[in-house]
Design goal:
Elements: E1 10-12, E2 16-21, E3 24-29, E4 34-38, H1 42-48, H2 55-65, H3 70-86, E5 90-92
Antiparallel strand pairs: 1-5, 2-3, 3-4
Helix pairs in contact: 2-3
Length: about 90
């Protein structure tokens, strides 16, 4: 598994097709033929990953937009990004 830190730039995997559906985000990997879905703050994070961004930058934006403290946000984002990396939905920029 790829290890990242809070300054590692990450970006969406370019081969995914995504669409919003009832507030959730549904994605499909054409190459893998798999569907993925995320809800809650996930669609906003996905939007921010349109360009290369670090976990620190994501943390600052999410803390500005949602009621969450920085340590909790950073920890949750690191876990979420590691999951996305593991599923091949994002990549290192």
């Amino acid at each position: 598994m790829t290890t990242i830190d809070s300054t590692t730039p990450i970006i969406r995997h370019p081969d995914l097709v995504a669409a919003e559906m009832d507030g959730d985000l549904v994605m499909m990997s054409i190459a893998e033929g798999q569907y993925f879905g995320i809800g809650g703050v996930g669609p906003r994070i996905w939007e921010l990953l349109e360009r290369a961004v670090t976990v620190e930058e994501l943390t600052a934006t999410i803390c500005d937009e949602f009621a969450v403290d920085q340590p909790t946000c950073r920890r949750d984002l690191m876990n979420f990004i590691q999951e996305l990396l593991g599923m091949g939905l994002v990549q290192l920029a």
